[in-house]
Amino acid sequence: MENIIYDKGDIILEELIILLKTADIKLDRLKIEKDKLIVTPNVNTDTTALTAIVNGYVKNAKKHLLRSLCVDSVKSKDLTAINYKTELASGIRLDAEVSLTNDGLIKETTYFYEKDSVKKAVIKITETYEYHSSDMAFNPTERGMYSQEKKWQYYFEDGTLDVAVENTKTKFKIYKTNRQILEVGHSRRSNVMARASTTMGSILVILGFFIDDEISTGKKKAYDALRSLSRKYSTDFTEYKTYGTTDLYSSIANDTEFTWLNTHVPTKAQLEASGKTAAEGAAYQGYVDALELNDMQDKSVRTYFVEKLKGNLK
Fold it and tell me: Of 90, 111, 147, 295, which has the maximum CB count within 10 A?
């Protein structure tokens, strides 16, 4: 028998199959191609009931938030084919929140739409990686990248994430040349350095090593100190970012000029044991948790810095 073709809409194939089985609708084949649902009936198929179920399901199916945010001309496109950067309606903008692995690779990116101070997730992009097996004995930031898998998933208007395979886009990349491996290595080690600068600057201000005065702020003093350190060891930092092979670890470990590297980052219990009140300890831990500085605790800034550069800490 001839195929019956329906607009795919936001169909989740597994859900539709369950509905058809429940209604005892017999088919030879059911598949999705691009933006169409293609049904191959057989002699026992009740096509009137089939169409009623499909149309009813499409009408009542949960809608993806991206469709309501894009221009009208692309609303009928396959969900995964909509460009969420260039095909949004006028005045619509998505903001991204990015999380990184300890060695600076992008782990997850979530795009949000914010209206009236309410943020709604639209798209989640998850990235997973595989290193060259021969590099596994090295520190994480020194390992050469072999492959990357990138997966796009889309949120419904009610805030739930659609995990259906047919509404998920996946791309796989193999890094075949040394140039590609060096480029991704440079990018991720630059991310590691940026993260380390942020965490160290923040904790040194929180602990009062650098404080505001009439001349400058504690934050500026902290970043001036970090800048001075990076200038002193500029060659080591450049080699670290470019190749991942460097004397930077030992340079930081053995430095005697920058005394703030010796600053101990206490746990809440250690801070309170030193004489701070429970309220002060709770406030301190609140800052640490909010800024995700937990990996620094019970270590010196120096120890954290070296281990962070190696990719062993957040």
Answer: 111
